[in-house]
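re: ur question from yesterday

yeah so i grabbed the chain u mentioned. its 407 aa long if i counted rite. heres the sequnce exactly as i have it in my notes:
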Amino acid sequence: MWKNVKYVQPKGFRQIASIGMNLLAPKTCCFGLWRVRRILSSYNSSVHHTDHSVQKECRTEPPWKVLFFGTDEFAVESLKILYASRQESSGRIVESLEVVTLDKDLPVRRFASANNLVVHDWPHVHPQGRFDVGVVVSFGCLLREGLIRQFQYGILNVHPSLLPRWRGPAPVFHTVLHGDAVTGVTIMQIRPNRFDVGPILSQEVCQVPEHCTSEQLGASLATVGASLLIETLKNLPERIANRKEQSKEGATLAPKINTAMSWVMWEEQTCDHISRLYRAIGSRVPLRTLWMGDFIKLLDFVGKFSVSEAEDRAVPGSILFHKESNTLLVRCKDGWVGFKTVMLRKRLSAADFYNGYLHTFFIKRHCLQHQHCLFQSKLAQTNEQPSRLTPPRLGAHTTGTVYRSKD
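ran it thru and got these structure tokens back, copy pasting raw so excuse formatting
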């Protein structure tokens, strides 16, 4: 029926294809010209409304408008350097700076408040095209695609490892725990709804200091990361143009630290392993063991100790009090390690623990034998809580002796 009908193009109508539908109306059709004009008017109004936020002028060089996401002390180092750049009179990298953090009393919030920065409580964030780039440092929350797309250059992440090694929330802890000799900092672009898998913009390699703790290493990497972030922002478009995807080989995971990691396995762990465990998590989660059915926290680790040849033949879990240095020594897989303090209901020095519990142990409990006084590993296969002041279950690892070293 429409073969011989002539079509008209409304006056002023352009770029019909961009609308996504054919609005050429037949003269004799009930879909009249006035309806075409009405749709066009509505479309033009919509385009005019969205152009302001989406089709804004595209910046190609600093200074940038930055929205910062962070929480802890590690993140504060990057926030400080961004804030300092905003204050510079010439050669500025940052034009404006606002902060997103959790609704808690956190280091990032305290710094932002002290320096009069605008703070947004997560997840109530609506950039609406007002920022060029986002920066995430130690934030711990997944970012949705709709949020990332509101930034011209996406969202950058300062990550304290040489990705793809140690993806996850605790890369510094696992670097120390696994005895890595080399680590570093990676600046990458965030991918939606995933952690630490985006393309790499820049990396800097760092040596891991010998015998350092995770706190010491983290503080050092925070400074390196802040400087690398500024260097990346100086030529951000070029860095993005030359970005590289992460290798699928060599990827390792760095899960959160938890109390299950704090149990010392005297039969399996070497002196070096226990040292790395203490330096990695000891300041946050004290190392733990079992004694006479009680949980004991092992504090103030002093490292490997040399003992006499006779004492060195003791089984793992055996306890030795070194009077001269006031140190409690425990036999592990390949030697003895020392602790200055333990926590058993209350904080006790090694001497207090020895005098109050070990020295009089057999006098008060003469019916029990030496094997009951052993430091024991928590058995992985049981979830039962040990009863207090009852001898631990005897098994393959229950032979041992309490020693007092010669003066």
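noticed a couple things. Residues 1-55, 380-407 have pLDDT under 50 and may be disordered. also The longest helix spans residues 33-54.
anyway ttyl
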